[in-house]
Specification:
Chains A, B: Pfam families: Lactamase_B (PF00753), RMMBL (PF07521), RNase_J_b_CASP (PF22505), RNase_J_C (PF17770). Chains A, B: Keywords: Exonuclease, Hydrolase, Metal-binding, Nuclease, RNA-binding, Zinc. The structure is a homodimer. Chain A is of the alpha/beta class. The termini of chain A are far apart. Chain A is about 30% helix and about 25% strand. The relative contact order of chain A is 0.11. Chain A is built from 17 helices and 28 strands. In chain A, helix 4 (about 100-115) links the parallel strand 7 and strand 8 (about 120-125). The radius of gyration of chain A is 28 Å and the shape is globular. Chain A has an 8-stranded mixed beta sheet. In chain A, strands 9-10-11-12-13-19-21 form a 7-stranded mixed beta sheet. A 5-stranded parallel beta sheet of chain A has the order 15-16-14-17-18, sandwiched between helices. Chain A folds into 3 domains: about 5-205 and about 370-450, Ribonuclease Z/Hydroxyacylglutathione hydrolase-like (Metallo-beta-lactamase, Chain A), CATH 3.60.15.10; about 215-360, Rossmann fold; about 465-555, Ubiquitin-like (UB roll) (Roll). Chains A and B meet through helix 11, helix 13, helix 14, strand 26 and strand 27 of A and helix 11, helix 13, helix 14, strand 26 and strand 27 of B.
């Protein structure tokens, strides 16, 4: 480490939000640091702010501009908010991708789905195996989470060691995959750690987290007591939970059937990579249809109320020949993520109408979180005992609370959100630059900026409706015939009790008649006058100010 | 009661949903019953299902058709989901309105706001005072809830007594307003009650409800320990809570200022009707601006994250000259209603960015519910000891669970949702007819049906974007010039890397050229062909299928 070299940290996504994780580390002379990227995730759209959008990824424009300096991409685990952006964004970055086997399996699929070579993804064994990437030496340190083979990263640079936790919990009995190995983490940390960059999502949960193993007896008891068909949902990627659910079904003498593509894909990935161990035998849906209901358990996708997932489809009627009936049980072995309540409640009520008993996790019996709670975070700080704590993955309020926790315990810490580039070479983070970041929308088959105004226009049409007004101008710049109005998303009748379009056409006829020659020759002026009159007229009739498209066609003499 | 007379119950809103309460009772010969309506509430729109809609009220078409049989409207309490529809719908019903003083105060405002006479609302004293309405004699029976003067209704008919609880909790120390008077409810019930029509919203809450008085010590302690400005939010209508908050501020030596119109309106209503008692003196915002922050407490509207309420405005910056700063505290003395999480979280993070400490009710210390929990519901069943229990006000799952509870305890009960007319003259409810019900949207200044397709079109534009395609046809039914395309809410560039509108116009030019004379003379066929080609072309370019408005203008020779 020469005097002018520095170690930098730059979150591009995930710091100031839950989801869309993307963290850059760099080492070298200012502005010339060699870079690595940790995770490249997605976040999900909603009707309120991003209607019609397929997926949301971080704006990586800065990284793309500096792609020549990017030596590698590391993926901590296979959740969508960590690996989901790989297929969509890799082409713009072009760096080699490293992950452990199960994660790499998913990363390769993402690459293939986007028409890129899966060979860009290299499988790495966990610590002590290392990957050299420019000035960095990186190692995958196993940690427990709600998906197999999650890892923290040990990132060594000439400026010292950084530990990036990835998403994690401290689970010593995780049902499947590696238990949290405190001794190993202490071993890795004992030479001194410059910075602990640490998951923050559960910082507001005051009690120590519970182990995945703790839900098994409860689920087993519940399934054993069921009379009709049992259907359970959880995140497909939580293979430990799938195993617990399947084993509970098996113990109750039921055949188990997995429904939903994500579910089958995950179990296949688990089998392909050998991490799944002894998973109960499952039957195909064709067989399930013929079984007595009390001999059957379905494990289905859609714990968050997703409209196209198996749980929602079953709630609307038949799905792959299966239906829910009076006396069946539906178990949400999951927590509803804030923002998804409406969809989940819709499904619950649909099942209620069918006479299905719904068991959710309001009492915390059938689900545990995959993230470290407040006491667990403090325990992690103590185990690693870093020079500084940098909270990541969380909304602003999570990062702030986590930073405060660290500082209260006498550690250096800093609240760094997306776009804040910090020099972490010294004893505490020092913000050296603000990078423009944001969200990129995957909309249909194209990528658009969240601030481009395109989705804003869609929101406006949803709120205000739309009017098309057409006028044809003759060779003498006089209106030819009447203006023509079409509406979409607006009431047909207003206060005049005449069709809205006729009223607006009448009003447009009036202002066209009064327009002076100068305006009639000027498309922009005419358009503005027509738009204003349409809005005024519609407002007067039905109390709404619509979005307006004006088409002026001029016949040329 | 002659042999052919019957007593009927018909929910038009609130049974199968939370909000929008409207329950009809009738007595008389089948099809000729004299009717009364209990409550006429609203529910609130959301972006997912009703973007741009102002408010949602029950579809009262059936009641309007039978308005000659309607003798009275009774309002149980002044919450919007019970009285909010009065102004919008009264004209279509025209029956006299009865309520207790505080509720009547609000009901009159609703009437005035809609340009109707407040004199249609009559103030009624509580039990034992009665109102005669056709064959019914109705009395307001005080009960505790989260707004003053809430009442159950004692509805007497020749077929017996019905008790309609309204929204309620069993609170013997409600801080403000009448404590739950078990002796009175026993007294009213002792002659025998045919049906208990009972609030169901909290049936999934397993523990006995807590009293409003229980939050006072916690809130007082919290405010006493605060260093900077304290800002607290709750439902404006929860005057007891406002009082608790204001008293906590006063006890901590702070001046109290109410921000937000709903807040001021509620306190004014409380003062006008004398129910508020000794409320701490408040100061106007002009004075508040000049006070030291540690001497000030604001109580503000917007506990549900409403964008225009005081809490959201403060989170975006200055509101009426007030701003939040590092070291201030913001207290949510409220629960987030499912579906409102995103808005509330947005505010929390905005405050976090300002350095404000956010205290929410995740631990249940600073808020209690206004509704009866499961054990309280069972206690109410026992107190009233009715022949049958009819659960109302709840989603399907709540009504189902509540019905089951009653049946498990050996009572008759029935799950009746909106539109199910039940004869309750006999020992158990007997569904005799299905009435068409639904939701009416207040959209701008007009009322539209939820199923009219108008809002569905708006949702489609939000998801898919919009294209206008214009073609002018000459006197010989040949296209005059090129087709003209305008887009809204769609990416400007697609896979051809040329402007989307140009690509689509080019494609339209191609199909117009290939169109046969028959199609060119037929507006419907042409429109369909153009719409299909626009969708195909846009799909090909950017992967989206837009909504399309086609305008074909024909010049007449």
């Amino acid at each position: 480490m020469t005097k002018s070299d520095r170690l930098i940290y730059l979150p591009l996504g995930g710091a100031g939000e839950i989801g869309m994780n993307a963290y850059v580390y760099g080492y070298g002379k200012p502005g010339k640091e060699r870079l690595i990227l940790v995770d490249i995730g997605v976040t999900f759209p909603d009707m309120d702010s991003s209607p019609g959008v397929n997926l949301i990824v971080p704006d990586i424009a800065w990284l793309e501009t500096n792609k020549k300096r990017l030596d590698a991409i590391f993926i901590t685990h296979a959740h969508e908010d960590h690996v989901g952006g790989l297929g969509h964004l890799w082409r713009r970055l072009g760096a080699p991708v490293y992950a452990r086997a199960f994660t790499a399996h998913h990363a390769r699929r993402k690459m293939e789905d986007a028409g890129q070579s899966p060979d860009e993804v290299t499988t790495v064994s966990p610590y002590p195996e290392t990957v050299k990437a420019g000035p960095f030496t990186v190692s995958f340190l196993p940690i427990s989470h709600s998906i197999p083979e999650s890892s923290g990263l040990v990132i060594d640079s000439p400026a010292g060691r950084v530990i990036h936790t990835g998403d994690f919990k401290l689970d010593e009995t995780p049902v499947l995959g590696e238990p949290f190995d405190e001794a190993l983490w202490r071993e890795v940390s004992k030479g001194g750690v410059k910075a602990l960059v640490c998951d923050s999502t559960n910082v507001f949960s005051e009690h120590e987290g519970r182990s995945e193993a703790s839900v098994k007896p409860e689920i087993t008891k519940l399934v054993a007591g069921a009379k009709g068909m049992v259907v359970a949902t959880t995140f497909a990627s939580n293979i430990a939970r799938l195993k617990t659910l399947a084993e509970a079904g098996q113990a109750a003498g039921r055949d188990v059937c997995l429904l939903g593509r994500a579910m089958q894909r995950m179990v296949a990935a688990g089998e392909a990579t050998g991490i799944i161990g002894k998973f109960p035998a499952t039957i195909p849906v064709e067989e399930a249809r013929d079984l007595p209901r009390n001999k059957l358990m379905l494990i289905v996708t859609g714990s968050q109320g997703e409209r196209r997932a198996a749980s929602a489809q079953l709630s609307r009627g038949k799905y792959l020949g299966m239906t829910m009936k009076d006396g069946d049980m539906f178990l949400f072995s999951s927590k509803t993520i804030p923002g998804n309540e409406r969809g989940v409640i819709r499904i619950m009520n649909a099942y209620s109408e069918m006479g299905v008993d719904i068991v959710d996790d309001s009492a915390g019996r059938y689900h545990v979180s995959g993230h470290a709670n407040r006491p667990d975070l403090l325990r992690m700080h103590d185990i690693v005992n870093p020079e500084m704590v940098i909270p990541m993955h969380g909304e602003h309020r999570h990062l702030r609370q986590h930073t405060r926790l660290a500082i209260e315990k006498g550690r250096a810490g800093a609240l760094l959100v997306n776009g804040m580039m910090a020099d972490i070479s010294g004893p505490a983070p020092d913000v050296v630059e603000y990078i423009e970041t944001g969200r990129t929308y995957l909309d249909g088959s194209v990528q658009i900026g969240a601030m481009d105004g395109i989705v804003r226009d869609r929101i406006r049409m949803a709120l205000n409706g739309h009017v098309t007004a057409t006028v044809i101008m003759d060779e003498d710049d006089e209106p030819l015939g009447d203006a023509w109005v079409e509406v979409m998303g607006l009431a047909e009748l207003g206060k005049s009790n005449a069709p809205l379009v006729e009223v607006v056409e009448g009003d447009l006829g009036q202002i066209l008649m009064r327009m002076n020659d100068k305006t009639l020759r000027d498309d922009d002026k005419m358009e503005e006058a027509i738009r204003r009159e349409v809005r005024r007229s519609v407002m007067d009739e039905i109390g709404k100010k619509p979005e307006v498209t004006v088409v002026i066609s001029r016949l040329i003499g």
